[in-house]
């Protein structure tokens, strides 16, 4: 490859790196939780204590953004040991055989000045389906990119039946909401 081609390639790579800001997603800087409802009334809520991920955002060119999250399903806490054990048990998350759930973005589009629609693959119990999450930045994305911190909230919903979660459980509705909030920082 000649020197001009290498220079052009280096400039393109530098532009991509400069436009996209990456933050690690880790416990202590936020929370990943769920809400299950029955007839619209919350009946179970909980949070996962162990998770990891990387959020790479480019608000100017959101199609270049990437999000990866991996959650340890056995780290769920609802505040009641009996409920924890039931949800982590074989008929629900089956944490013993499926210790991780994950989300990997495939397409990110900007829906507003501070909001994104994130389409991706959600995997629970080794079953994968497409879901769309919404995310809203609590801070100005431009300032966050320069300062290295970004406060946010994100959410999505999924069907328990689609992931073979608690097919015989009728104490909660089929739709479960996932809520993620926190502050990303380097």
What order do the helices and strands come in, and which of them pair?
Elements: H1 3-19, E1 21-25, E2 30-38, E3 41-48, E4 51-57, E5 66-72, E6 76-77, H2 81-88, E7 100-110, E8 115-124, E9 127-137, H3 141-147, E10 149-159, E11 175-185
Antiparallel strand pairs: 1-4, 2-3, 2-11, 3-6, 4-5, 5-7, 7-8, 8-9, 9-10, 10-11
Within CATH, the superfamily carries the name Lipid/polyisoprenoid-binding, YceI-like
Shape: elongated
Listing every helix as H and every strand as E from the N terminus to the C terminus, the arrangement reads: HEEEEEEHEEEHEE
Radius of gyration, taken over Cα atoms and rounded to an integer in Å: 19 Å
CATH architecture: Beta Barrel
> Which spans have pLDDT < 50 for at least 5 consecutive residues?
2-19
State the distance separating the first and last CA atoms: 35 Å
Number of separate domains: 1
CATH fold field value:
Lipocalin
Q: Averaged pLDDT, please?
A: 85
Q: Strand-residue fraction?
A: over 45%
